[in-house]
Amino acid sequence: MSATQLFLLIASPFIGSFISASANGWPIWGKTLRSRSHCSHCQKNLQARDLIPVFSFFILSGKCRFCSAPIGINHLMAELCALLIAIISVWVFSDTLVLASVLLGWVLLFGALVDLRTKLLPDGMNLILVISGLLVSFWQGGGQGLLSAALAVIIGFGVFFLISKIYLHLRGREGLGLGDAKLLAAGGAWLGVMAISWVILLACIIALFSMIITSVYSRKKLEAKTMISFGPALAMAIYLLWMLKNANIGLL
Ligand SMILES: [Zn+2]
């Protein structure tokens, strides 16, 4: 294992903690640090030993040291997700692309967390993913790779844009946000034009499963008007397909 790979694995839970705090603070970056260093219940300052990713949660048995209020597991899940992303990336990639791969995963994790909280996807995040995806596609496939990626950006955005306009016209309310269209375009930039339909299919399957699980868990009936965040499913689909594409199992 190279020094870079080892560093990524050790740093990933800390980065996950930062991603989680940033997603909680978005769009106000000043809130980022505050949201992590106070107990949200008793407002007491947390100490450094309470802020060690993953580890602190288990040492404190998931409760605040001062008031025993339960600590939300959102931070813990984000830290574990960031670690998982690093493990899979290190496992699949041995070269420079491991850096691109963890960055893609971590930025998507940030977007998914923001979408879960606000039902919005940051434009800046989508823009960063489109540009970095085009660069990585050029790095991997030269001019042809770049062309395929650029086409995928246009088609990815276009497909969801059309669906959202048709839905709005037929139902008179918004069904699919433009943030999702931009995220699909970003996925296209990373995966190329052949992967667009796979991304949509996989994202729909993930969204459907999470809807069913959520409705069983919360005992709420699913209705046509039930709002779901499609962004997290889309983000997960993009990352899974990026891994499948590069794991050389001949799917894409
Ligand atoms: Zn407290």
Commentary on this structure:
There is one protein chain. This protein starts with a helix and ends in a 6-residue tail after the last helix. The mean pLDDT is 88. It folds into two domains: 1-92, no CATH class; 119-252, no CATH class. The longest helix is centred in the middle third of the chain and has 49 residues, at 123-171. The radius of gyration is 19 Å and the shape is globular. The protein has helices at residues 3-25, 31-37, 55-59, 74-92, 97-118, 123-171, 178-191, 196-218, 230-246. α1 crosses α2 (31-37), α5 crosses α6 and α6 packs across α7. The chain has 252 residues and is an all-alpha fold. The site of zinc ion (ZN) has 8 residues, from loops. Zinc ion is lined by residues 39, 41-42, 44, 64, 66-67, 69.
Distance between the termini: 27 Å
How are helices and strands ordered from N to C? HHHHHHHHH
Structure annotation, total helices: 9
What integer value in Å does the Rg equal? 19 Å
Q: Helicity range of the residues?
A: over 70%
Percent of sequence in beta strands: under 5%
Bound molecules: zinc ion
Oligomer: single chain
Q: How many strand units?
A: 0
In total, how many domains does the architecture comprise? 2
Q: Look at the structure and give the mean pLDDT.
A: 88
Shape: globular
Q: In terms of per-residue confidence, which ranges show pLDDT below 50 for 5 or more consecutive residues?
A: none
What class would the helix/strand composition place it in? mainly alpha
Biggest beta sheet attributes: none
